[in-house]
Each structure stands twice: as structure tokens, then as C-alpha cells.
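Worked example 2:
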Amino acid sequence: MQKQGNVAGWTVTIAALGINLILGILYSWGVIKKALVEDWGWTNTEASLPYTVCVALLAFVTIFGGRLQDKYGPRIIALIGGLLFGAGLLLSAWAQSPVVMVVTFGMVSGIGMGFAYAAATPCAIKWFEPRKKGLIAGIVVAGIGLSAIYIAPLTNYLLRTSGVQHTFLILGILALVSLVVFSLLLKNPPAGYVPQAKKDRPAVAHGHDYSWQEMIKTRPFFLLWFTYLLSATAGLMLIGHIASIAWVQAGWQGGFVLVVILAIFNTSGRILGGFLSDIMGRTSALLLVFIIQALNTFAFSMLTSIPLLIVGTAVAGLAYGALFSLFPATTADFFGIKNLGVNYGLIFTGWGIAGIVGPVLAGRVADLTGTYTASYWAAGSMLVLGALLVGFIKAPKSKEV
């Protein structure tokens, strides 16, 4: 019986990974943004707006998507999300102004992404023992980072050969078909299902199941939310502007290569961060990630050659990716798995605020100064503050209601 449970759990995990592989189309925006500026004459700020709105809605809709998947199951919520995400991409093909694309890509795709993303990770975690929460979360969320390995070159090729409009059409069709298939494979474990640990390892219980109303009254919730915001700002800033950064700092037109580098190490960071946190503890892993991310961000303005940019981008991707396994695993540790969808959705809104702050800050600085230096210093300072706050993050000892 346990063997069958493991097969079902890994099937769900692979399907959830597949969903995130498609949702990662979002992370090719650095390539699309560059084309909007060069081919359609938009400013850096205008070209950043659809991405910024999409990121913000993704984060806030994840709350409602998480709540609905906790109640109705992940399959229907992921299916609705997939249809909306694909439709938004298709409609963006006819968006000739920033305002219209904010609606199509920013709002429609953003809402769809929020629903699909909310359904993926919680249901996979529920199939496995507590000691594997970090690893399973890392595998599932690795899909978004890994996607840019194929999406960035594909998007760059489509933009070069077919233009912006046909690029959105092709990506939209790809998203619709793939997300429908993967969504149909998602399911929660049956009632009363308890995953067994290895025979030589004693069982470990999940944390007390907090409702979202109970969770938001605790200090760990606020600290996790705020540190998520601080840590995600630098990563989202780079993801949204990396192709432009390559041109500004090194005169390199092949910035889409950095998108691929970012994706590879973003993916590695998600799996490695989850694995290490299972061994060394969540907060210790968080502190290590914050320190690495801060040092790299402060140094980024000095990366003025292609080799240095590749190294800096790799480090940024590794540290940023780790956040996406550390925060959901920590949420499950602190507040249980019964309401993990909505609980992590609330903490994930910190990432959503970062999605507004990071890209807009970088775009505005670039438009005003022609460089990204000031934005690096601002993001680096936020990371230092986050590292200091990590020392105060402790699991709630009892219900704080």
C-alpha cells in the first residue's frame, strides 16, 4: 500500500513540476521586455509594467487559489489557472500599448498563474513525510527556474524570426495545452493518509495545523512575510532586467544567455536549498542565502565583462532560487500542512510586493541614470536587513491566539 502511495505522490510531484515549467514563461520577460523597447519603442518603465502587474497578481491571487485548493482540491484550481494563463498570453498578441498588455499579460495571465501556482506545491508536499518537505518543495518549484533554460532561447528565436505578436501566440498555445494535461494529474492524498518514514528513521510529525486566522496573529508570520519581501526584491529586479543589464554594463547583445544561466542556477538553488534546509535547519539555510545574496548584489555594478556577469548571474540565481523551497517548507514546519495552500499564499504576498518594488525600481533608475548601480545598493541594503531579521525567526511554541 505504501508503494502505491509513493507512486501516486511522485506522479503528482512530476505533474506539479510540469505546471511550473510552463508558468516559468514569466521569467523570459527579460527577453520580451528588450524586444518591446527596441521594436515597439516602449520605455524601460512601460515595458516592465505588464511583468510587474503579473508578479503582483500572482502573489495575491495565490492566497485565494490556495484557499480554494485546500477546499476543492488542486485539479480544478490548476485547470482554471492554466486556461487563464494561456488566454492572457494569446490576448497579448494583439496588445499594442502598455495599458492593454497590463490587462492581458499582467492581469489575465497573472490571475491564472496565481491559481495554478497555488495548486502545485501544497498537494505534492502532502504525499511525503515531514523530513522531505524541503526536497519535494524544491523539486516542484524548480520547474519555474528550469523553464527559462528552454523558454529563453525559444522566446529569443521566436522574437527574432516572427516578431512579438507571433511569439505571444505560440507561447499561449504551448501554455494552454500543457497546463490542461498536467492539471488533470493533480490530486490530494485520501483522507487519513499518513506517509511512512524509512524503517531506520523514527516518524516525525508535521507541525500543528494553524488556520490562516491563527497564523496571522503570530510573530513568525510577519517575520517570514517581511524577509520574503526583502530577499525576493534583488532576484526579481535581475530577472526582469538581465538582458538590458548585459547591454548596459558589458555592451553584450546576447543577454538572453544570462537568462538561461539564471534559470540553471535558479533551479539548482531550489533543489539544493530545500535539501540543505532538511539537514541544517530552515533558518540557518535562510541566513546563509541572505548573506550570499547581499554580497553578490552589492558587487553587481562592478561586473562589467561577460565572464563576470555570468558568474554574478549564477550566484544570484542560486540564492534567489533557494527562497522558493525554504519559505514553503518553513511555512509547513511552523503552521502545518492542512491549510498550507492559503497559509503559504499569505506569506507569498511578500514576494508579490517585491515583484512591484524590484523591477520598477530598476527600470526607473535605468531610465533616469542610464545605469542600475543605485538599484543594486538599495536591494543589497534590504538583504542585509533581512539577514538581521532571520535571527529572530523562531517556530511558534503554541497557538498564539
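The two ends are 39 Å apart (CA to CA). The chain is about 80% helix and 0% strand.
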